[in-house]
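Reviewers of the previous submission asked for a worked example of the structure-prediction workflow described in the proposal, so we include one complete record here. The input consisted solely of the amino acid sequence. No template or homolog information was supplied to the procedure at any stage.
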Amino acid sequence: MRRKIVVLFFLLNVLCSAFSGDISSIELQEIGEKIFQNECKGKSKFLTHWNEGESFGSFGIGHFIWYSDGKKEIYNEMFPKFLVFLKVNKEKLPDFLQPDKPCPWKTRDDFYKNYNSEKMGDLRKLLASTKSLQVKFMADNLESSISKIKEAASPLKKQLVEKIMVFMLKTEAGLYPLIDYLNFKGDGTKPSEQYKGQGWGLLQVLESMKDSNNDSDIVKDFARSARLVLKKRVENSPNKEQEQKWLPGWLKRIDTY
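From that input alone, the workflow returned the following structure tokens.
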């Protein structure tokens, strides 16, 4: 028991120091470009996007969700938080683009009718010029989510989840899947982000992984687990037909891990 406690405290210390300046700007840029390809096909025109079958727009290289006035769903709204991050980093924002304001386009039709408007163009220019801040925002989100994910893990999986996160953060290829999947499908700790009592976020992926001390295998196992979690999400979805259409794209994204 004493050894387990010592190991646990070691893992906690490693997790808390994982982002102590060890991530280089070059590494973050490379991760940002991969996410830009995943979400926007590497094209600036997709920095502002609204998927068919969704009731919200998606913005930036990470396709952060921004809800219109009066429209709230189960998914975590990240775009207003990113706007706060931009202001903290001294970026000047136009009046319509403030953290306390809803998305100005209320429907997908309205969004694309105004796709070439000055307002939408200004937004895309801002997003194109702040890619480095967007990936830094996503990395900071991972850092702040670590303790929350650890606390939400089931008692039987808690130590395994901590151990896996340590190994993933230590490996050269491990940081990108953690940042990308967290941005892609959330941390998995919100009860609202579940179907039939089962989540599909980073927590669920980590809990479904195998215990391993092999750095080269751990990223492969992360991808294996992510595929299973996403397939289970579709299986449990109340809108199974729609999500089944999205699944091939989701799995193709996991193939980049």
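The chain is about 60% helix and 5% strand. We consider this example representative of the routine output the project will generate in years two and three.
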